[in-house]
Automatic annotation (TrEMBL), chain A:
The keyword Endoplasmic reticulum applies. Keywords: Endoplasmic reticulum, Membrane, Signal-anchor, Transmembrane, Transmembrane helix. Belongs to the SPCS3 family. The keyword tRNA processing does not apply. The lineage of its organism: Eukaryota, Viridiplantae, Streptophyta, Embryophyta, Tracheophyta. Transmembrane segments: none annotated. It comes from the Eukaryota. Essential component of the signal peptidase complex (SPC) which catalyzes the cleavage of N-terminal signal sequences from nascent proteins as they are translocated into the lumen of the endoplasmic reticulum. Essential for the SPC catalytic activity, possibly by stabilizing and positioning the active center of the complex close to the lumenal surface. Pfam families: SPC22 (PF04573). It is a single-pass type II membrane protein. It is found in: Endoplasmic reticulum membrane. This is Signal peptidase complex subunit 3.
From TrEMBL, chain B:
Belongs to the peptidase S26B family. SUPFAM superfamilies: LexA/Signal peptidase. Its EC number is 3.4.21.89. This is signal peptidase I. PANTHER family: SIGNAL PEPTIDASE COMPLEX CATALYTIC SUBUNIT SEC11, SIGNAL PEPTIDASE I. It is an enzyme of class 3 (hydrolase). The keyword Transmembrane applies. Residues 37-144 form the Peptidase S24/S26A/S26B/S26C domain. The keyword Transmembrane helix applies. The chain crosses the membrane at residues 19-40. InterPro entries: LexA/Signal_pep-like_sf (IPR036286), Peptidase_S24_S26A/B/C (IPR015927), Peptidase_S26B (IPR001733).
Length: 167, 180
């Protein structure tokens, strides 16, 4: 009962249990953080808007993204993954979400930013429904913790519209 | 020399009833572990409620050796979710993020395109020949929680199976030679 093996086993089990408990508490503490992120997206330019040979519409945009995600960072945050998606509806599809740009924010200092970019990922429709289409631009974020539960949310900005004709 | 002598003595001193009791205890431990695993599958709704991250395609968020907790609900798949999917013909599930989602209005079926955060290109090259989208039945779960480093045990045991045998052998020896 008092051999080295038993003592090592008891110590190890206890250590692992305590570690698991601490990880759970660290994750739980994230619930109490007060989060007030803000963002604004402006479309600076529609670079081009064409119908591909396959018949799908494609558009290229330049966006101006301003955001302050600093309040999302807690002591248990490893990084925040932020992305901008265009969301719209067509006659065939109830919902289309196309990610246009994303970034990994590793630290709180980098979480307040202003960036001007053209879309990193191609904005292609399933079909040719984009002329004159109203769409929302949403800034999503995904908080990845050092341990525990991940959580995600978004800000929806509506009122954007694509041109009525190809260019 | 004394330790080996003691071990040999204790193996010789085993009685049948004691041996059977120990075998049943061992069986109970293994069965409880299995019960917990199956219960986890039921509760989380996913075929593999816990996966180990094997590649660096989601760095720096998920490193090799981290474990992810998965959950699969009836809720629709949305962009930004980290999904675990397996492609027909590949055994190992892949953990990447959904970047494009197209959901049909009538049938609620969904086309999903995924990409690893740390990859330059999206996952079309990983899908089966001619497949452009993932569908719901490819997706085994969504990642909801995460623990760092714990998965290294599994990686080491898979990549160097000799360690697995040594560990099981040592455990077996410990059980047999224990005095109670």
């Amino acid at each position: 009962m008092h051999s080295f093996g038993y003592r090592a086993n008891a110590l190890l089990t206890f250590a692992v249990t305590i570690l698991a408990f601490i990880c759970a508490i660290a994750s739980f503490s994230d619930k109490f953080s007060n989060q007030t992120p803000s963002a604004q997206i402006q479309i600076l330019n529609i670079n081009w808007f064409q119908k591909q040979p396959h018949g799908n519409d494609e558009v290229s945009l330049t966006l101006n993204v301003t955001a302050d995600l600093q309040s999302l960072f807690t002591w248990n945050t490893k990084q925040v993954f932020a992305f901008v998606a265009a969301e719209y509806e067509t006659s065939k599809n109830a919902l289309n979400q196309v990610s246009l740009w994303d970034a990994i924010i590793p630290e709180k200092e980098h979480a307040k930013f202003w960036i001007q970019i053209s879309n990193k990922y191609r904005f292609i429709d399933q079909g040719h429904n984009l002329r004159g289409k109203d769409f929302n631009l949403t800034l999503h974020w995904h908080v990845m913790p050092k341990t525990g539960k991940m959580f995600a949310d978004k800000i929806v900005m509506s009122g954007y519209q694509l041109p009525n004709a190809y260019r | 020399m004394g330790f080996i002598g003691e071990t040999v003595d204790s193996i010789k001193a085993i009685k049948i009833r004691q041996l059977l009791t120990q075998a049943i205890t061992l069986g109970m431990i293994i069965t409880s572990a299995l019960i917990i695993w199956k219960a986890l599958i039921c509760v989380t709704g996913s075929e593999s409620p816990v996966v180990v991250v094997l590649s660096e395609s989601m760095e720096p968020g998920f490193q090799r050796g981290d474990i992810l907790f998965l959950r699969m609900t009836k809720e629709p798949i949305r962009a930004g979710e980290i999904v675990v999917f397996s492609v027909d013909g590949r055994k190992i599930p892949i953990v990447h993020r959904a970047i494009k989602v197209h959901e049909r209005g009538d049938t609620k079926e969904v086309d999903v395109l995924t990409k690893g955060d740390n990859n330059k290109i999206d996952d079309i090259v990983l899908y089966a020949e001619g497949q452009l989208w993932l569908h719901r039945h490819h997706i085994m779960g969504r990642a909801v929680g995460f623990l760092p480093y714990v998965g290294w045990v599994t990686i080491i045991m898979t990549e160097k199976p000799i360690i697995k045998y040594i560990l099981i052998g040592a455990l077996g020896l410990l059980v047999i030679t224990s005095k109670d």
